[in-house]
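Open question from group meeting: does this chain pack into something compact, or does most of it stay loose? Before anyone orders reagents, we agreed to write out a predicted structure and look at it together. Recording both the input and the output here so the notebook holds the full record.
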Amino acid sequence: MTRPPLALRAWYLVGGRLPLRYRDWVFHQATKPSWLAWFMVRALLQVLPLTIVITLGLVWGLDSPLPLAVACGSLGLVVGVYFAVSYAIESTDHRMTKYGYPRASASTFRKEQSSETDRERERRYNEAWRSPSE
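Structure tokens returned:
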């Protein structure tokens, strides 16, 4: 797996597309245990510039009071990130199709990984708490 340079990783975080040679890294990012946290960071970084522009437009263009403009911008930020996270699984799967992976490959991989983890967790629990006669 080839990791992209820092500049390209930053570009990816703000919504840019990486060259196909980094497709394994992108898939790893979409399927690692902290994928949803990184998705939220990515969504936040994509919505933040628009929020700042709207807030500044309210203050400078419409002469809005600063607290009101910040409140409106913050609400827009929260709604934007909430909407993005609501469709995180679908968005991630769609992004993977752009890198040549089959449809729903990331969510399927995550389900398989979590089921393996669940089976291992159940086995350890049974060893620790269940008697051999059960």
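Observations to bring back to the group:
The radius of gyration is 21 Å.
The helical segments are 6-13, 23-31, 35-61, 66-86, 88-98, 105-129.
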